Amino acid sequence: MSDALQPAATRRTLLAGAGMAGAAGLLAACGTDEPAATPTGGAPGGGSSPGAAPPSGTVLGKTADIPLGSGKIFAEHSTVVTQPSANVFVGFSSICTHQSCPVSQIADGKIKCTCHFSEFNIADGAPVRPDQPAGRPLDERRIVVEGDEVRVA
Ligand code: FES
To answer: pLDDT tens digit string along 8-57?
Structure first.
């Protein structure tokens, strides 16, 4: 096995967040899953439709920008792309499933929402702690890798 990034041109990779939390029954620790005002002051769903999937074909970035065992938040496209294992790229909506804040960090193998401190697994988007407010996984975002680019599928 190799840890080095390999050109994906010869082996297109299409993955999407599995969305399979396997954690049914988790309780919200701070309020409901109803959307709240975003940290930027706008109401979710208002104006530019935060969290809406970008059009198919939208270039998100380069595979080299997605660290192995971590990921990158493409806030302008409301999308998170992770690389949980070598050359496996996974896409998620960047909008937290608790109250619709945009996630803001990826660290320690987790996608983090700092509004109320929910954390999601980088491989499947599932909530990682039973005591966190978000009780369901991040929504999947279908992506495709073509050459060294990651695009919306
Ligand atoms: S909006 Fe509450 S944890 Fe993300």
So the answer is: 333 334 444 333 333 333 333 344 455 544 333 333 433 345 678 899 99
Taking the C-alpha atoms of residue 121 and residue 137, their distance in angstroms, rounded to an integer, is 9
Q: Which domains does the chain have, with CATH numbers?
A: 10-153 (2.102.10.10)
CA of 137 to the centre of ligand 1 (A): 12
CA dihedral for 121, 108, 131, 52, sign (positive or negative): negative
- Between the alpha carbon of residue 106 and those of residues 12, 27, 31, 122, the distances in Å are 25, 23, 24, 8
Report pLDDT digits (tens) over 50-101.
678 899 999 999 999 999 999 999 999 999 999 999 999 999 999 999 999 9
In short, whether 129's Cβ falls inside 6 Å of ligand 1 is no
